[in-house]
Structure formats: C-alpha cells, structure tokens
Amino acid sequence: MQSDYMHWAKTRAPVAFPLGSSEVAHFRMDRWEIDPAQLDLDGASYYRYAPLREAIAAKEGVPPECVVMADGTSMANMLAMAALIEPGDIVLAESPAYEPMVATAAHLGAEVRSFTRRAPAFAIDPDALQGPCKLIALTSLHNPTGNLADEVTLRAIGAFAERWNAHVLVDEVYLDAAATPQRSAATLGPRFVVTSSLTKVYGLSGLRCGWILAEPVLAERICGSTNCSASPRRIRPSGSPASLWPGSTRWRRAPLPCLPATGRWPTPSSPAVTMSS
Ligand SMILES: Cc1ncc(COP(=O)(O)O)c(C=O)c1O
Known about the structure:
Layout lengths: L3 H8 L27 E2 L9 H11 L6 E5 H13 L5 E6 L3 H9 L3 E6 L18 E5 L11 H13 L3 E5 L20 E6 L11 E5 L2 H10 L10 E2 L10 H6 L24
Parallel strand pairs: 3-4, 3-5, 5-6, 6-7
Antiparallel strand pairs: 1-9, 2-8, 7-8
Bound molecules: pyridoxal-5'-phosphate (PLP).
C-alpha cells in the first residue's frame, strides 16, 4: 500500500514557508501543566483507557461505548474502513479528496468511484451520489477546500446510505476549526462513522491521539481489531490522585471487555457540543 501524496509530503525538501501545512503550530510539552518527567508510560495495555474515552465521548456528544481509540486519524480511517468494506465493495469517495482515504479503500480491495464536489463552494450535492455502494467516504471540513458539510447535507447522505444499506465515513479531523461550531456527524445516527484526532486543530500530532465514533456494536468490532493493529495505552502522571483520573484504579485492577453493554444511541435532538480549542 502506498499513498503517493503522503510519500511526496514526507520526502520533499524542507522550505522556509511551508504553505501546504495543514495544522496549527505544535503545542509544546513545556506548556503542559503536567511535568512530562512524571508521566507513567508503562501501564498495562487494555482496550481503552476509560478517562480518555469518557472525555472524548463527552466532547463529541456520544456515549463512551461508541468511542474506539486509534493512533491518529490515519489509523482510525484504516480501522474503520477495514471493518466496513470487503474486496469488491463499492466505495463512493469525494473528489477532490484527501488522497490517503482513497488509497486506503483501494488497498482494502474496494472499487472506488468518485463523486464531484463542484467549485466554487465544493459543497457535497447528495444528488451526485449514485448507488449501489457499501461506503461513502468524505471529509468535513473538506480537505483540501475547508467546506463544511452542514447537517441537512449530512442527513441527506445518511438517507442515501440507508437506502443502500451502506455507511458514511466522515473524517472530522478539521471540524473543530469550523467558523460555525457544528456537532459531530456521529450524533446523526448509526449509519455514520466518524474519525478524528488531536493532530490538526490542537497541534498535538506527536501524541497520535485519534479516535473512531461508531454505534456500539460496530465500535466493539473495530475495538477487537485493534489487537492486530495497535496497543492502546494509558499515560497518566505517576502517583496522581484517582480523582484526577477517574476510573483509572478500576481500569488497572480489572481488564474490562471492549464494551460494557450500556450503549444508547443519542437522539437527533441531542444538544450540540460546544467546541473549544
Ligand atoms: C483529512 C485528513 N485526515 C487525516 C489526516 C492525518 O491525521 P492524523 O495525524 O491524525 O493521522 C490528515 C492530515 O493531513 C488529513 O488532512
């Protein structure tokens, strides 16, 4: 598997003013309130670090059972697609596209068909989608144009997916940079699978803190696949009080199954989450 674009981006000669960069200035560790020397990196490898998962669930407006951790959005996209498509399935991908998403679908053996986002707005026209398909893959904010897919559009795409028994994968790694805050597409129903991370809007690319939001049964399946692709870890200040890291003691003592079966899908009227950066 190769992404020609990423290969170019990682091997091109450095320039003084890299206008192609897509993330905010890196957040330096000396700005943390925690002393990095006190971080405990050698915890046991459980499926999910409960406090992080709960924090992401609260931020995104979904139950914790819907959250699966991944090493960045890149891995999140790979894990989500691996769970959703099989060789020969048709994936509808936006054009222009973030090329690694297309490369991932192709790598998994999908037949990728593109639908065009037309200039000048580059908004998605749901009528441009043509079935059948197993997955519709898009970014919001759109890479490369920054177009926000509004909820009316997303719901129309969701209805299209429903008709074809398909899923909608929305890469929301830039969503928190939207001029008008918008809740995650994951809150719109079980057809939607969302990926994101702390890379772009928070300047924490080195942390590789990414996640997938999916309905609980699918999330469980994706979570199981992380045994073959990643080792979910926990980082916590050594000796920090349990009140700072709720659930961490319980988590350490008793490895939990991937998901407690308490998931409840949020209703469409769930309040939007206020984004902060
Ligand atoms: C749309 C999109 N998704 C994912 C990524 C990669 O994000 P991460 O560093 O979280 O893997 C990028 C990086 O350019 C991106 O533009």
